User: Fold these one by one.
Assistant:
Number 1:
Amino acid sequence: MSAAELDRAVGLLVRQVGHWQQPRWAARLDSGDGSRADHVHRLVQTIADLGADAEGGPRRRVPRLPNDLALVDQLRVVAADLVAAAPPEDVLARAAAEVAATRDVL
């Protein structure tokens, strides 16, 4: 798994949700596992944790901003941070799989 493949997965998710307005973000998932925004925020936190682990630094809580439209930007930032940390390929593969799984749920 390469950084380009993770970038592609993130790009696909961004294209899927980047145009959503607040009501669509607030919609509940069919699984009952919170809202769409909750699910994407969990993805952002997972990617941020992978990045912190790759850097050898502490994990930090990603803030849940008042406007869910910011989730797309948060995802882009944490994915870029992960790639910049130059993690092993299996970490990039896990991140890409998490992104793909999120796309499937949404």
Number 2:
Amino acid sequence: MITTNDVAKVYDTVLSIPGMSELVKIDLKISRKEVLLLSHVISLGINQKETPSDLLKSIAPEELLGMQNIAQDCLEKAGLVALNEKLTSLSEDCK
């Protein structure tokens, strides 16, 4: 049976493959709605405290920061930073 440690080793191995750190250009056209949802999903995944996935457990904190930066960059390019902040504040007020 495969253990959590085995899964972490596999993820670490895959992420260490030569070329995985190379930058790639992605030409992506998505709606503002999808940008907002993508940013939210990234944030939820990164901030998940209960049972994070084995992949997230094996990622260095600076790489997670890179994902947050990607989400923020998408929001900026779509002109949704202020709206996202207000929606986040609103949802936090409901907790």
Number 3:
Amino acid sequence: MAWIYLFVAGLFEIVWAYSMKLSDGFSRPTYSAITIIAMILSFALLALAMKSLPLGTAYTVWTGIGAVGAFILGIVWLGETVSVARVTAAVLIVSGLVLMKVSSPG
């Protein structure tokens, strides 16, 4: 169950990163509220996952899901630049996440 909590926490991290971008420096109340709610949910689920997963594993996977998810979202919805270096970096992050998962108990 901890891995499910962690995965969903990572999804909420993507949501809050995206809504923070759309909040325009917290000047748009709706997106600001979405950011804060998604942050709270993300942290709460991360905390639940950390009850049984090692700190380093949980935190690394959580930030990795958020980083790669935000990267993909930025390309797909915000028209951010795609380059070989950026895609390679994302692939390396995902590779690290997979290695963390297979090498961790739980």
